[in-house]
Design brief:
single chain, alpha+beta, seven-stranded antiparallel sheet, six-stranded antiparallel sheet, 13 helices, 22% helix
Length: 586
C-alpha cells in the first residue's frame, strides 16, 4: 500500500452555522446543527460514517477521505484514505481510522479480505497503520486500548458480533470479545463511542429492530436503544456537556444535494433514547473580539464560585440578533390573527387625525401580504410623530386579546419560522428587518460558562415576558429559568433598568450589583453606567442612525480595551454572526 498521502486543498469552504432550535423552521428540531457548505467535501467520496471531535476541531471520515474542520466551519485539512474508511476516533493527539477490507480495484471484500487501522496526527499527517485479518468498521479508545468492531458480510441478518482490542500506542493485538445486544443486524458494529462510562455500539439493524447497544467497559450488555442513529456518532468534547452529562454528535449526508454536504447534530441520552439538544450549540467562541473575550474570561474567573455573583442580559439585539416582539408582530400581521376586538378603533386611539385613513387601510386589507405592506409605513410615521414612545405603545396593541398561553404559542411558532431570516440593515426601518431571529453560539456559550462558574444569569428586557420565556428557554439553547426572565409586563422600563436591577435582583444577591451586564442600546445605558459594582459592561455595537449622537455612541468610541469596564463587540448583522472586531457590519 502506498503510505504517501496527497493532502487535498485546504481552501475548500466551510460551515454555514444554522442557529436556533429548528433553525430551518422545523419546530420538532431542538438542536443547533452545523451544515457543511457546498465544496467543503469532495464529490464522489461516498457517505460519511465516522465523526469525532476535540475542543479545537471536528474530524469526519468520508469513505475515501478524512477531513478536519474547526468549530467556526473552516476546513483545515483533508486527506485521501483507502476505501472503505469507516469509523474514526481521536486519542492523545492521534486520529485512528477503521478501514473495511479491500479487493484489488477498490471494491469491498466482505469480512474475509482483511481490514486496516491507520493512525494520523491531528494535522492529518499519516503516522502508521496495521493490517488485520478481518474487515472493520467501528473504532473507539477506552483507557489506551482500541476497541474495533469486526465486520461480517452475511447474506442474512444475524446476531452476535466480535470486538477486537489493540494497544493504542503500539497497535499490537490485545484479544477479542464477543457481544450480543439481542437483535438482528446487517454487517457488524458500524460505530463505537466511549463516554467515560458506557461503550455505545451502533448497527445497521434488520427491519424493525433497534440499532444501538449500550455496554459497560468490559462489554457487558447494559441496554438496547431504538434510535435513528446508525453511524456517524461520537461523544462531544466535555465543554459541551451539560451538568456533567454527556452530549453526543451525529453526522449524516444531506439528501438531494449536487455536491456532498454533511449535517452535524447534538444529542443527549435521556435514559431511554436519544433526543436532539441545543446543549452543544454554544460550541464556538471564535467570533469574539480578542480583548472582549479576555475581559469576559476575566470576570468569570474572578467571580467563580461566588454565590452572590450574577449577570444581567438585555435580550433583543443582545442575546439575539433580531427583535423577539417584531418577529411575533410580523406573524400576527401576516396571518391577520387579531384578537383585540375592534382593531380599527383600538389602533386609532391617539393617532394623528391625518393618519387615521391609513389605520383603517391596514385593518381593512383582504390578506396578510397587504396588511404587512400597509402596516410598516404607518408604523414608521408614528415612530417619528408623535414619537418613539408612542410607536412602541401603538405596536404593542396588536398583542391585545392574547392569553399568556396563546402568546407563548405565537412566540414559539414565529421564532421557529423566522430563524435566520436576515440580510437586513437594522438602521433602515423596513419590513425585512423585522423577521430575522438568531441566537449566536458564542452568546449561548457565554451564558453556559457563567452558570458553570456559579454565576447566576438574568434577562431584563423591554419585550413581553411571555415571548422572552420562549426565546430564552431550552428550545433555543439558553435555558434561563422562568423566574430569571423579566419583561415590560413585569416592571421593566427601557432606560430604567438600573433601578429595576436594584429593586428586584440585588436583594436576591446580598444587595450587590451584577458583575456583568450586556446590552446594545440607550435603553441599556443606565445599567452600563449607574451600577458601580458592575465589573464588565458588554456592549454590542449597533451604531445606527438613532444612536449616532447619543451618550452610548460616545461610550463605544471611548472604550479603550480589555482592562476597561466597557467591552465593545462587533457583529455581521446581515449574516447573523459575531466578528472579531469592535465595529459591526450593517
Amino acid at each position: 500500500m502506498n503510505l504517501g498521502r496527497v493532502v487535498l486543498a485546504v481552501a475548500l469552504g466551510g460551515f454555514l452555522v444554522a442557529e436556533g432550535a429548528g433553525s430551518i423552521g422545523d419546530a420538532s428540531c431542538r438542536a443547533t446543527p452545523l451544515v457543511t457548505a457546498s465544496g467543503a467535501l469532495k464529490a464522489g467520496m461516498g457517505h460519511v460514517q465516522g465523526i469525532d471531535a476535540t475542543d479545537e476541531a471536528i474530524f469526519l471520515s468520508h469513505d475515501r477521505g478524512l477531513f478536519k474542520i474547526d468549530w467556526t466551519g473552516k476546513l483545515l485539512a483533508a486527506v485521501e484514505t483507502p476505501r472503505h474508511t469507516g469509523d474514526i476516533c481521536v486519542w492523545k493527539d492521534k486520529v485512528y481510522t477503521a478501514t473495511h477490507a479491500i479487493k484489488p480495484g477498490g471494491s469491498l471484500a466482505g469480512g474475509d479480505g482483511g481490514g486496516l487501522v491507520e493512525v494520523y496526527d491531528t494535522n492529518l499527517t499519516f503516522v502508521k497503520s496495521r493490517k488485520l485479518d478481518f474487515g472493520i468498521d467501528g473504532i473507539t479508545c477506552v483507557d489506551g486500548r482500541l476497541y474495533i468492531g469486526f465486520c461480517r458480510n452475511h447474506p442474512r441478518p444475524m446476531r452476535g458480533h466480535l470486538i477486537g482490542f489493540l494497544n493504542a500506542e503500539t497497535l499490537e493485538p490485545a484479544g477479542t470479545c464477543g457481544i450480543d445486544y439481542g437483535h438482528l443486524t446487517q454487517w457488524g458494529p458500524q460505530d463505537l463511542a466511549y463516554d467515560g462510562e458506557a461503550v455505545w455500539t451502533m448497527f445497521y439493524p434488520a427491519k424493525g429492530e433497534p440499532g444501538c447497544g449500550r455496554f459497560s467497559k468490559d462489554l457487558t450488555h447494559v441496554k438496547t436503544v431504538k434510535t435513528p442513529l446508525s453511524n456517524g456518532f461520537c461523544v462531544a468534547p466535555k465543554r459541551f456537556w451539560r451538568d456533567g452529562h454527556p452530549v453526543y454528535l451525529s453526522a449524516h449526508m444531506l439528501k438531494g444535494e449536487k455536491t456532498p454536504r454533511v449535517r452535524i447534530d447534538f444529542w443527549r441520552f435521556n435514559g431511554t433514547d436519544f433526543e436532539k439538544t441545543s446543549a452543544g450549540a454554544a460550541g464556538t467562541d471564535t467570533g469574539w473580539e480578542p480583548s472582549v473575550k479576555a475581559g469576559l474570561e476575566q470576570v468569570i474567573n474572578v467571580n467563580r464560585g461566588d454565590r452572590n455573583a450574577y449577570a444581567v442580559f438585555d435580550f433583543d439585539y443582545t442575546l439575539a440578533i433580531g427583535d423577539s416582539s417584531y418577529v411575533c408582530l410580523w406573524r400576527i400581521l401576516e396571518t391577520r390573527d387579531f384578537r383585540g376586538g375592534d382593531m380599527v378603533g383600538l389602533m386609532s386611539e391617539g393617532v394623528p387625525q391625518a393618519l387615521l385613513p391609513q389605520v383603517e387601510a391596514v385593518f381593512s386589507a383582504t390578506d396578510g401580504v397587504q396588511t404587512v405592506q400597509r402596516f410598516w409605513p404607518l408604523y414608521r410615521r408614528l415612530w417619528n410623530d408623535p414619537g418613539e414612545a408612542f410607536g412602541c405603545e401603538w405596536r404593542s396593541r396588536l398583542f391585545c386579546g392574547y392569553t399568556p398561553e396563546a402568546l407563548t404559542e405565537l412566540a414559539r411558532t414565529a421564532m421557529h419560522e423566522n430563524a435566520r431570516r436576515l440580510g437586513h440593515r437594522p438602521d433602515v426601518n423596513v419590513p425585512s428587518e423585522k423577521r430575522g431571529f438568531v441566537i449566536l453560539p458564542e452568546v449561548r456559550r457565554l451564558v453556559h460558562d457563567l452558570r458553570a462558574a456559579g454565576i447566576a444569569t438574568y434577562v431584563v428586557s423591554g419585550s413581553f415576558s411571555g415571548v422572552l420565556k420562549v426565546a430564552t428557554g431550552p428550545e433555543f439553547g439558553l435555558d434561563f429559568p422562568s423566574d430569571c426572565v423579566f419583561g415590560c409586563d413585569t416592571g421593566v422600563v427601557a432606560g430604567e433598568k438600573a433601578d429595576f436591577i436594584r429593586r428586584r435582583l440585588a436583594p436576591r444577591h446580598g444587595g450587590r450589583d451584577p458583575v456583568l451586564v450586556a446590552g446594545d442600546s440607550m435603553g441599556d445605558y443606565a445599567m452600563f453606567t449607574e451600577l458601580p459594582g458592575v465589573q464588565r459592561a458588554l456592549i454590542f455595537h449597533r451604531a445606527n442612525r438613532r444612536t449616532v449622537d447619543t451618550p452610548l455612541r460616545k461610550l463605544i468610541d471611548e472604550a479603550p480595551g480589555p482592562k476597561d469596564k466597557f467591552l465593545v463587540q462587533g457583529r455581521d448583522e446581515p449574516n447573523g454572526r459575531l466578528i472579531p472586531s469592535h465595529n459591526s457590519i450593517f
